[in-house]
Write a structure and sequence with these properties.
alpha/beta; Nucleotidyltransferase, domain 5
Amino acid sequence: MGTVAVCFRGGRIDVARILRTNDALPVLEFCGSEPIDDSEADALSRLRRKHRLDRAECVTLIPEGDYQLQVMDAPEVPDEELRDAVRWRLNDVLDYPADTATVDVFSVPGDPGSPTRTRSVYAVAARNELIAERMESFSDARLSLRVIDIPEMAQRNMAAMYETPGRALALLSLSADRGLLTFTAAGELYLARGIDIGLAQLGHAEGDLRKQLLDRLVLEVQRSLDHFDRQFSFLTLSRLVLAPLPEDSGLEAYLAENLYVPVEEARLQDAIDISRVPELTSRTMQAERFMVLGAALRTEGGA
């Protein structure tokens, strides 16, 4: 049936279903959106009826700002006790009690040539009430919610489609308010960095102010590249891929001129068969739907 991603974005809900086949590219069966004119549950109900999702199992993303992502050394406890041990450590990080948080943990891959090196994990924490509200909206709309994921993992899914075997890949996406830079290899997330520069700032800035923003963005990316090289010296980075942008902003050329790694802008048709959704040939639509497509690329049982 394929994975159905249902993601909240401002005043609308995006939906996409991707079917993985034996062919080279996953197939996008449909992609659309629904405005939230009244309640989330009502908008979800309309999506369920429009796309016949009564039997679908859905994946959704926690909106940016509604969760915290923290990397830490893995506690030296049995795997079955790892989540509780991480939750205890989060008491020093969260601005609310950790026992009122929904917590998940996933490992950062280590150097296969150094098995004794301390293992690191990412901890994801969100307030219980936020998770409960989202689950209730799906339940009220009679939609089955199988997984609640985070944008970093959706971007990891998308990055995996552009990776070169045996090499790492950096992928930079920009939403209206922020940027997200991820480093992946063999479909695994190694490093994620948020950047407080978004398309809205770049779009409204002119002249010297625009150049200052671009220079700040380059500096943030360069620092992350340097950190990745130091932290994961056993990996070689192939290139930086820039997620689709709604218009020709000149960002790809600016990054290419100022970074030491090759830079290219992603084309969704190189990663996904979008022939059933011809409107996605538009750069603007590719930029708008990037995250929901990344969420829909999640494999069954994947992390």
